[in-house]
Design goal:
heterodimer, A: alpha/beta, three-stranded antiparallel beta sheet, B: two-stranded antiparallel sheet, 4 strands
Chain lengths: 387, 495
């Protein structure tokens, strides 16, 4: 009797398993899209840029029409706000029906989420459009943290400096040339105040050039002698601050702030993490048409920004449909359009019609291990945080 | 029988108000204590230790940050008090007073963040004021002056003044209406003092003691202000409240502990400032006695005139800052040294106007709901105390003013979830209104408290002896006498 029951159970089980096997990747995706229909995806993404916001409201219309998924852009000043929300949900035992369904993250935020086990996945390689991604880009490591399919690439960032040809005919092309320029133009060079993202990134850019052994940057700071490795950077900044904006007593608060200051001639240089930003701002009429982006000869710090799904999202299928749409050639091409957003695409060049100025065209230097971000912020604050 | 029934109802209603508006505050603070000592299981911190405090005290520039918070709070409060009292002494009952009262409401209603941004545009080295000077000075690039974000917090203090003076003026109006200043002034004047002297000698001491709590609210606001300080305050280091916000936002989760410790330190700093104010006041009493009772007449202190000139300056600044903001909203491009934008565009309004409608409507709903509940709650609580003829220490209902907002709003969602379950998050409107209520309640309560205490209860007694019910006596006698404009701070704080 028992044997018969066992046989029947085995038969039923194999039936289920077989149908599961019979459903290939396309069919799986089809099922997922069907399940996603009428879901609402709360996309927590930085809302400080009108162009990005407009792009996302276009995307939400498309997604609604094509897939019946409602995309709501929850604008945050810093994605860490979303992480705080997910954390407090986890603390309160809210393991389903979380408020956030999709996050725009990278770097140490991603590392923090991954470390605390707050992510759904791996899902990235199951997205049909994942095959179109340009594998030459460093999409598998995020600030030296392995991505492991827990986030899908969305765009590329590259640290560039903006100068106005009319004011600065020959832009400095290295850290030392920049210092020289600051000496001849006192009070006109600065950088966003760490721990602001662009400020720290600028410090890293300088560090990659000034450091004696570049390999040290790939390791967690606990494995190296941080003070010794970073000493050349502090020596450099001590010199720079003597001739920088307000002699280092005041710093721009963000990259946008720097662009305004560049336009107002308070500063001669702005910093952006988007090589297309200068061209886009000129086209919009936000900056003089003599402004363009420059990279140091040594190369430009490069990283990918990603889309991730929180472990307690209530619309995981919807979130994947959104991520896949945002990775489509149509969405990536529009995103790269200078008049719309101008964020460089992560897909292969031959799949899209995108001009060169809108791509990550500078020679890339990879990001240091994510632990450098916090350590540099802290060390900077210790040295320059109060006068 | 009827009366005791009503009293019971009122007692129950008061209990509800206390549970709704005050109790969550204690839990918010309690939620800070554990993380500050290293216990935050959700983040994997499970051992109690002092390391957060060590880390906090070792934070670069911490002492200066605390000092800045204290300084900007105390200095702005002192100035707000001097300016307000002077203005009242010179203008109350005067023809010009009408203008002052016209100024109060809009000045209070304008959100201070927008205002801080406008002030920044006005004062920055490439701002409007410098642009006006530029043609005369022959500058080609903006001068290197440290104006906004100055390390001495002066621009922050200026902003606090512009917000604080109208607030204190409003509070004074409420108190003054109960003090019957005309009669007292007449009396003093008959002794040979001129009107201004009479005002200072007779009314100011009474006014001061009744304005104590609103003053403390100004003080606490000055110490804990975050958003405006972020825009216009010092940066290296920033005031303590701004530091805490940055720690809360730090992606490194360990900073959550530091932020909790910092929030407690902010609480201590605030209490210290209040204590300092109180002690200074006590210490100055003998001096004040000498000055107030010296019998000298017809003295004009030059400071009086100086403080008097401040209001028009504040008003002009406030108007220009908002005009700059308005012009910016139409500016396609507005480079230094152009006095007006080189490109005018409707783009921002056309583009974002429709997107703004919904948030605007929501904001309005929030403001109305939370203010209404706050007014009702305050009335219930005050009437309860009034009928029992015993007032609670005023600090209790106003505790929310002493707790940094960020602290409260990290603890709040956790609390409500454990009490009400996850479904509460599907009612965001209720959650947010509740948050607003916590912040609005003390302001409304403050506005009403003075009026309630100063209210001559004989009016109500007469009404009762004439056979009116408690409710009737309240609605038709007391309510009209309580002066409804006092409810103004509600919506304006809430917005």
């Amino acid at each position: 009797m028992q044997k018969i029951v066992q046989k029947i159970v085995a038969a039923i089980l194999s039936l289920f398993l077989n149908t599961a096997w019979a459903c290939d990747a396309d069919c799986q995706w089809f099922k997922l899209e069907k399940k996603a229909r009428s879901q609402t995806v709360y996309f927590y993404a930085w809302g400080g840029h009108p162009q990005v916001n407009d792009y996302l409201s276009w995307a939400s219309q498309e997604i609604e029409q094509q897939f019946g998924v409602t995309l709501v852009h929850v604008k945050v000043a810093d994605i860490s706000e979303a992480i705080a929300i997910i954390l407090s949900e986890k603390a309160a035992g809210r393991n389903h029906h979380g408020r956030a369904d999709l996050l725009w993250v990278n770097g140490e935020n991603f590392a923090a989420l991954k470390r605390a086990d707050l992510l759904f996945g791996p899902f990235a390689h199951q997205l049909p459009n994942d095959q179109l991604v340009d594998k030459k880009l460093p999409v598998n490591v995020d600030f030296a943290t392995p991505v492991e399919g827990l986030e899908a690439p969305w765009g590329v960032g590259q640290l560039v400096m903006m100068f106005d040809q009319a004011i600065t005919p020959k832009p400095p092309a290295s850290a030392n040339e920049l210092l020289e320029y600051a000496r001849t133009h006192p009070g006109r060079i600065s950088y966003p105040q760490p721990p602001q993202f662009h400020g720290i990134t600028f410090l890293k850019q300088l560090l990659t050039e000034l450091v004696v052994d570049a390999e040290a940057l790939k390791q967690p700071i606990s494995d190296i002698n941080f003070d010794e490795v970073t000493q050349p950077l502090w020596d450099y900044l001590d010199q720079l601050h003597k001739v920088s904006w307000y002699k280092g007593r005041r710093f721009p608060q963000s990259d946008r702030h720097m662009m305004q200051l560049l336009d107002d001639k308070e500063l001669h240089m702005a910093i952006s993490f988007n090589p297309a930003e200068a061209m886009a701002a000129v086209n919009r009429g936000d900056l003089a048409d003599t402004v363009s982006s420059y990279g140091f000869n040594h190369g430009s710090l490069t990283n990918i920004h990603f889309l991730a799904i929180p472990y307690n999202s209530s619309a995981k299928e919807g979130a994947q449909v959104v991520a896949n749409f945002l990775l489509s050639p149509k969405a990536q091409e529009r995103k790269a359009d200078l008049t719309i957003w101008g964020d460089p695409p992560v897909l292969r060049q031959d799949l899209m019609n995108v001009p060169k100025e809108a791509t990550a065209r500078f020679q890339s230097i990879s990001e240091p291990h994510y632990s450098w971000h916090g350590a540099l912020a802290k060390a900077w604050l210790t040295r320059y945080g109060y006068q | 029988m009827m009366r005791s029934g009503l009293n019971l109802g009122l007692g129950l209603a008061t209990l509800v108000v206390v549970l709704l508006c005050i109790a969550p505050l204690f839990i918010g603070v309690a939620g800070l204590v554990l993380p500050a000592w290293g216990y935050y299981p959700a983040l994997g911190f499970e051992t109690f230790s002092w390391s957060t405090w060590q880390q906090l005290l070792a934070w670069p520039g911490l002492s200066r940050a605390v000092w800045l918070s204290l300084f900007s709070g105390l200095a702005s409060t002192l100035l707000v008090m001097i300016i307000t009292l002077t203005l009242l002494s010179l203008l109350w009952g005067n023809r010009l007073w009408r203008w002052v009262s016209l100024y109060i409401a809009p000045a209070l209603a304008l959100p201070h963040v927008a205002f801080a941004i406008g002030l920044g545009f006005l004062f920055s080295p490439s701002g409007w004021l410098v642009r006006i000077l530029t043609p005369f000075m022959g500058w080609t690039e903006p001068p290197l002056w440290l104006t906004v974000n100055d390390p001495w917090a002066l621009s922050l203090i200026l902003m606090l003044l512009i917000k604080g003076v109208p607030f204190l003026l409003l509070m004074s109006v409420g108190v003054l209406q109960q003090l019957q200043p005309e009669r007292q002034l007449l009396m003093a004047q008959s002794l040979g003092y001129d009107r201004v002297q009479a005002w200072w000698k007779v009314l100011v001491p009474q006014l001061y003691s009744k304005l104590k709590l609103p003053l403390f609210a100004v003080l606490v606001y000055g110490i804990t202000v975050v958003d405006a300080a972020l825009i216009i305050g010092p940066q290296l280091p920033a005031p303590l409240a701004v530091l805490i916000l940055r720690w809360f936002q730090n992606p490194d989760l360990g900073f959550q502990l530091l932020a909790s410790g910092g929030a407690l330190l902010l609480l201590l700093t605030t209490l210290f400032a209040l204590l300092l104010w109180q002690c200074t006041e006590k210490a100055l009493i003998p001096v004040a006695h000498n000055i107030w009772l010296n019998g000298r007449k017809r003295v004009r202190h030059p400071l009086l005139l100086l403080a008097f000139c401040v209001l028009p300056i504040l008003a002009i600044l406030s108007i220009t800052a908002n005009s700059v903001l308005l012009i910016w909203s139409f500016a396609g491009r507005w480079r230094f040294p152009d006095l007006l934008p080189s490109v005018i565009t409707m783009e921002y309004w056309l583009h974002h106007g429709p997107l703004l409608l919904q948030p605007l409507w929501q904001t309005l709903q929030l403001a109305i709901v939370s203010s209404l509940v706050a007014v009702l709650g305050s009335l219930v609580m005050l009437e309860y105390q009034h009928q029992r003829n015993r007032y609670w220490p005023i600090l209790l209902p106003c505790l929310a003013l002493l707790i940094p907002q960020m602290t409260l709003f990290t603890g709040l969602p956790m609390l409500s979830q454990s009490l009400l379950g996850g479904s509460i998050f599907h009612q965001p409107f209720i959650m947010v209104s509740f948050g607003h209520l916590l912040m609005v309640f003390p302001y409304v309560y403050l506005g009403l408290h003075g009026a309630f205490q100063a209210f001559d209860r004989r009016y109500q007694t007469v009404a009762l002896t004439l056979g009116a019910s408690q409710t009737n006596a309240f609605l038709s006698v007391k309510w009209p006498l309580l002066n409804p404009p006092l409810f103004l701070p509600g919506p304006s704080v809430s917005l």
